[in-house]
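FAQ: What does the model actually see?

It sees only this:
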Amino acid sequence: MPMFHHFTFSGMRAIRFVPFHKEPLYLFLKEFPGHRPCNDAGDPVSPLCAWMIEKTGVYNLGTPLVRTPETWVIPRKMDFPTLKRSFIDHVFVRYPVPEFFYQVWENGSKLHKQWFAHLGSGKNIRTALGVPEGLYGKIPHYFLLAPRRMTLAQALVYGRVRGMGGHEKLAKAFALSPLGDQLEMDSKFERLIYLFIREEELTIPLIKPALAFFKKKYIIEQADDCPGGGDVFLARMKEDQYQEALKKEYAESNKTEFRAQICKQAITEIVVEGTIFQFTQIRNAMGLRMEGMLMKHCVGSYVNNCKRNFCSIWSVTIRYESANPDKRLTIEVLSDKRIDQVRGRHNRDATPLELKAVSAWATRFKLKKR
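And it is asked to produce this:
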């Protein structure tokens, strides 16, 4: 590998080429007096070449150059982007490289710059070091045809969708989705792409929610029952969204405690005919939900009424000395202290003993009975 021993990098001050300056070449010559840029015959400009080698790091990549830096012909426009593009094309590009690939020289890794040099020398992208798996069939061809403003990761997704038979709009939509943010794409996502290509029910606006559901269900949770039809997939996605909305709703609701009504004690005990009844106000949404699930009725839907203080919900259990408590009733008390509903499991009516306990509890706290 040739080295520029006659170039001194240490202490060299960086040159700022101002594109709006009428004579940027004058600034360069003023910075390095006695040197001249190379002409059409290829006479080198040592300081400028050394500066571009340092800026681009071409010798740090470990890839062969298609031309030596000494033969680089300085472009007439001397702003830095033009100089950098001209220099990269000179030392790496024998065959055209897709426009989006030039972005790797701004913030790309060493590996991606090696891919650039690999393509520029005329080699197939599939044979480059460290390329992602799955570049088969027409995928590499469409990858290199990606729009110029796409990132490298987006171009890979674009090429994958087009190579698998997807149309232009679908490929762009997938590339600009969260899937286009990752260079290494899990092969399971190909199943989702095939679904969107094949099923008319899966339209472009559904890509983002479908990706979120697919990642959660089949990548993170590792479920292996991915449906083969679009209608089944949509049904599962909507059910998952519904469950997530319920969890979010109850999580938000649980942050707010319902106002204490009737009494401030956590538990009130009433003894009727030797049986101990415990009355407890349910103070949050999760409690209402669990009460509805255990008692097999719809009290879980009373969250908003309780938050607005339209009513309070009470759970009634029987406490035994040598056994677990037995949940027996759910009571709704309206804001005017009137008992509106008393229901057991599956909305059954209260037994005579239970009614006596409720009546004694209502008398103690001066509640109005039905």
